[in-house]
Design goal:
Layout (H helix, E strand, L loop, with lengths): L14 H4 L17 E5 L2 H13 L4 E5 L8 H7 L31
């Protein structure tokens, strides 16, 4: 029996996977499909968070419970996203110096 001989049904890839559709995606947090769940202690704080949610164009279910502490971590995560830090490129050895002396970088500040 040859090692290349295979008796059985060849399973084909489903068509929707070959077109690049993401069938296992989750709904974005803060959208209508997956709203934020926030809990506050006072009605004043409720009005503050409602204004913040409207400004950020998010959807949230906010409840007022006076006995328990606030749970606003989901909103804080969406508002305070990290930004990419870019640094200035260091000049090459033969590039003019950035201090404005007119000399090459390797003779001046390098």
């Amino acid at each position: 029996m040859s090692k290349f001989f295979y008796k059985g049904k060849i399973e084909k890839k489903p068509k929707h996977e070959s077109f690049g559709y993401n069938t296992k995606r989750e709904a974005k947090l803060g959208s209508t499909d997956n709203p934020l769940t926030l809990q506050v202690a006072t009605t004043e704080r409720l009005h503050e968070l409602t204004a913040i949610v409207a400004e950020q164009e998010l959807v949230a279910n906010i409840t007022v419970v006076a006995d328990e502490p606030e749970q606003t971590a989901e909103l804080d995560v969406l508002i305070n996203k990290n930004t990419t830090v870019t640094s200035e490129k260091t000049p090459g050895r033969n590039d003019p110096c950035r201090c404005g002396s007119g000399k090459k970088y390797k003779k001046c500040c390098g």
